[in-house]
Each structure stands twice: as C-alpha cells, then as structure tokens.
C-alpha cells in the first residue's frame, strides 16, 4: 500500500518443509522478510537473493511474506 516494493506471500498447503526458489522477470534489488502486517520481521531469516531468484525455506504448512524491490 505504501508503494515501496511489492508484497509476496507464499503458503505451503502440501505439508512438506521445502527450500523454495522463485524466479522473477526483473532483477531483485532488495528483499526482506515481513510479518502478515507487512512490517519488517527481524525474527525470521531474510531470503537469499541471486539476481532474479528469491530463495528461502518454507516450513510445513507455513506462510512466508516478503517485501521485494525490483530493479
């Protein structure tokens, strides 16, 4: 809502703990873990970023939320 990047939310509905790679069309400039209220979440590990790829662990039935800024 504040125009500072986009919010990406991912949910595991299969019940498996996985490492997830999401490939974006544009290069990722910055990515941070956020809460469901879209505030920075310092208790959760930040996602890994490799150019166009956002990489993170997703626990069984877990929800992860990120604020992503693209180039």
Structure description:
The protein is mostly beta strands and 71 residues long. The chain is 0% helix and 51% strand. The protein has strands spanning 6-11, 18-23, 28-34, 48-50, 53-58, 63-70. The strands form two sheets. It has a three-stranded antiparallel sheet, with no helix packed on it. Strands 2-5-4 form a three-stranded antiparallel sheet, with no helix packed on it. It starts with 5 loop residues before the first strand and ends with a strand. The model has no long low-confidence stretch (mean pLDDT 94).
Keywords:
71 residues; 0% helix; 3-stranded antiparallel beta sheet; globular; 6 strands; mainly beta; single chain
């Amino acid at each position: 809502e504040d125009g500072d990047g986009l919010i990406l939310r991912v949910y595991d509905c299969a019940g498996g703990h996985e490492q997830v790679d999401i490939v974006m069309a544009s290069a990722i400039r910055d990515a941070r873990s956020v809460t469901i209220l879209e505030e920075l979440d310092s208790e959760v590990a930040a996602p890994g970023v490799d150019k166009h790829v956002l990489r993170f662990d997703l626990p069984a039935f877990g929800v992860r939320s990120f604020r992503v800024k693209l180039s």
